[in-house]
């Protein structure tokens, strides 16, 4: 990798995986306090269908719809550039449908996190791209 882009050391990698686990559980549990803590105020959250939410919009959406029934991740590629981490890897969401049913959506998500002045990692950007239908 480029000299300024590198793989995190084990404690940093563990911290990044831990905040991602917190994100998953908080979305499923609609734990708005945790989401408020781990999402930066500048968050840009782009859902697989293309709708983009700010932090406030995502918190309201999560509280109103409770859309997440389950979230699982595959192996993540994690790269650091200073106090910015980029995590990319497979993501599967089990989602509640508006009619009370459920559906599964799988794809690849890229997340960008920032650590300000040695503070905890916070998500500043999220984007999921669903897998295309195979023909």
From TrEMBL:
It comes from Streptomyces sp. R28. InterPro entries: DUF4440 (IPR027843), NTF2-like_dom_sf (IPR032710). It holds the Pfam family DUF4440. This is Nuclear transport factor 2 family protein. Residues 16-122 form the DUF4440 domain.
């Amino acid at each position: 990798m480029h000299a300024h882009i590198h793989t995190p050391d084990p404690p940093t990698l563990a911290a990044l995986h831990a905040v991602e686990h917190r994100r998953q559980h908080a979305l499923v549990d609609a734990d708005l306090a945790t989401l408020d803590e781990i999402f930066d105020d500048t968050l840009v959250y782009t859902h697989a269908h293309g709708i983009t939410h700010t932090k406030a919009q995502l918190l309201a959406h999560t509280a109103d719809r409770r859309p997440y029934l389950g979230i699982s991740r595959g192996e993540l590629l994690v790269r650091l550039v200073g106090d910015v981490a980029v995590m990319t890897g497979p993501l599967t969401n089990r989602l509640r449908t508006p009619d009370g049913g459920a559906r599964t959506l799988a794809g690849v998500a890229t997340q960008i996190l920032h650590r300000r002045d040695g503070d905890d990692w916070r998500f500043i950007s999220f984007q999921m791209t669903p897998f295309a239908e195979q023909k």
